[in-house]
Amino acid sequence: MNDNTGSKKLRRSRHQRILTGVSGGIGEFVGVDPNIVRVVFVALTIFGAGTAVLLYIAAWLVMPEEDGEDSMLEHIIRNFQGKKSDL
Q: What residues form the membrane-spanning segments (predicted)?
């Protein structure tokens, strides 16, 4: 494992992206291949009655992108409030 985990932040990846970058971001954060994270998501979806789909959507909404500060959920809330939000 990495010794400087205090400086790492959980972010959606721009480089290891297939859909939204959640698996790539989790893989980079924990130091494993993003494909392993994707296989775990698929297995949890099949054997967990789709629970992983909800977890994936929640992670997509809450995790900010690699170079961004705000999450997708923060942008949605700002737009709902009528405030300008650049995504």
A: 39-62
Indicate the burial class of 73 (C-beta count within 10 angstroms; 0-12, 13-18, 19 or more). Answer: middle
Nearest-angstrom CA–CA distance, 63 and 43: 22
Distances (CA, A) of 59 to 1, 54, 64, 79: 22, 9, 9, 20
CA 43 to chain CA centroid, nearest Å: 18
Per DSSP, 36 falls in state H
SS3 content of the chain, % helix, strand, coil (to 5): 50, 0, 45
Distances in Å between the alpha carbon of 52 and those of 7, 40, 55?
27, 9, 5
Half-sphere exposure of residue 50: CA atoms within 13 angstroms, side-chain side:
0
pTM: 0.75
